[in-house]
Structures are given as structure tokens and as C-alpha cells.
Amino acid sequence: MDVRLLGRVAYLPTYEAMQAFTTARTPDTPDELWLCEHPPVFTQGLAGLPSHVLVQGDIPVVATNRGGQVTFHGPGQVMAYPLVNLQRAGYYVKEYVYKLEESVIRTLGHFGVTGHRVPGAPGIYVRLNDPFSHAALVGPTPAGDPFKGLGKICALGIKVSRHCTYHGAALNVAMDLEPFQRINPCGYAGLQTTDLFTIGVETSWDDAARVLAGQLAALL
């Protein structure tokens, strides 16, 4: 897997470049992993509803063809875009998503943080009151809140075209979290978001990107 560090780049041209790469690739094209961060932008997935953007303000909204609903991207967030030929790699979309999530969980583990999956809600979450606890989550009652006590630290959204992936994962490292309050993150009203800095991990964007890239390259 060829790893490309793009730096801080605008979202829309990056999205268009992923589409162009995927359209042009052949069965022999090497897989790539793009790592970058974006200026502030809200992105809407195919399932996104305009009503989930509560207060847009001065942040642009870009409609995309990834799965999921609305999320926020901004400086201090590691965007990881794996461009993978799933047919050549030999695994299905569900396994690919699992590997993405596992890469993030292992990255968080590198910094001593325990990441959790929530059934039916793609992404990775942490306990806000004790992000370093290794205890398993206790599921909610049928009428309970599956996100009680949790903060979302990584959003996932992918697109698969001709067995090849683009879009990917957004890991919050040290960013302005206020824009998340202007939306229903991933379609969930009141869902809290967090980042590594807020839960007590002081690391640089470069270090977090390096660790995540290593985990993605190893698992994918």
C-alpha cells in the first residue's frame, strides 16, 4: 500500500481526486492510503437529511456519495482515505469496515485509550468519564440510550465502486469541536463528540497519522 501524506487540502478537490483515481485504476493499480486534514466543512452522506444541519453558519456543506449522514471535518482531525481493491484483497465490504474500525481501535490503544464499537452505529466511541478503562461496554436497555456516557472519536463513511473503496475514517486528534454542536452528528441528535486532546492525550497530528497509517497498512 502506497501511503501519501497530502497535508491540509480542501475537501471537494480531494473527494473528486478519489473518484478519479478509482475510475481510472486497473486490476493492477497499487492500493493507496491518503492521509490529510481539511479546512472546516460539513459533509453529507447518501442518507443525510438537511434537517440534521442545525446551524450551518459560515461552514460549507458538501453532498457526497459515501454512506452515512452528516459529519464535520476540520483541522486537527486525521482523515484516512484507503483506496483498496477489495476483490484483489479477498474480503467483503463488512470485513473491510471491521478492519477500518479495528485500525482505529488499535491506534487509540497505542495512546492508552480504549475504543468501543456501538452496534448499528458505525464509528468508534470512548467512555467520556474513563477513556482509559478496559472494561467492556454494557448494552442499554431496549428503550435506553446506546450512547450514554460515550463520545464519538472517529467517524466512518465509505463508498465502494467496482469493488474498490474510497472515503474512509476521520479520527479526532486536537480540533475545534464546536461545529459538531451545529449538527446531529451522523444523524444522532445530542450525540457527543470528543478528541484525543479533550480526553487527556496530548499528541501531534503527525504522530496520530503515523500510528493510524501503520495500523491500516498492516490490516488492509
Short overview:
The chain has helices spanning 11-24, 86-89, 93-110, 205-219, and strands spanning 2-8, 32-37, 41-44, 61-63, 71-73, 77-83, 116-118, 121-127, 150-161, 164-172.
Write the layout of secondary structure elements.
Layout: E1 2-8, H1 11-24, E2 32-37, E3 41-44, E4 61-63, E5 71-73, E6 77-83, H2 86-89, H3 93-110, E7 116-118, E8 121-127, E9 150-161, E10 164-172, H4 205-219
Parallel strand pairs: 1-2, 3-4
Antiparallel strand pairs: 2-6, 3-5, 6-10, 7-8, 8-9, 9-10
Helix pairs in contact: 3-4
Question: Can you characterise this structure?
Answer:
The structure is a single chain. Helix 1 links the parallel strand 1 and strand 2 (32-37). The chain contains 4 helices and 10 strands. It is α+β, with helices and mostly antiparallel strands and 220 residues long. The chain starts with a strand and ends with a helix. The strands form 2 sheets. A 7-stranded mixed sheet has the order 1-2-6-10-9-8-7. A 3-stranded mixed sheet has the order 4-3-5, with no helix packed on it. It is globular, with a radius of gyration of 16 Å. Helix content is 23%, strand content 28%. It has one domain (2-219): BirA Bifunctional Protein, domain 2, CATH 3.30.930. The mean pLDDT is 94. The longest helix is centred in the middle third of the chain and has 18 residues, at 93-110.
Portion in strands = 25-35%
Coarse structural class: alpha+beta
Dominant shape: globular
Biggest β-sheet, characterized?
A: 7 strands, mixed
| Strand numbers in spatial order across the main sheet | 1-2-6-10-9-8-7
- The CATH H-level homologous superfamily: Bira Bifunctional Protein, Domain 2
**Tally of DSSP helical segments:** 4
Domains (count)? 1
Radius of gyration: 16 Å
**CATH architecture level-2 label:** 2-Layer Sandwich
Spans of at least 5 consecutive residues with low confidence: none
Annotated CATH topology:
BirA Bifunctional Protein, domain 2
**What's the number of extended β-strand segments?**
10
Residue share in helix = 10-25%
CATH class: Alpha Beta
**CA-to-CA gap between the ends?**
8 Å
Mean pLDDT: 94
- Listing every helix as H and every strand as E from the N terminus to the C terminus, the arrangement reads EHEEEEEHHEEEEH
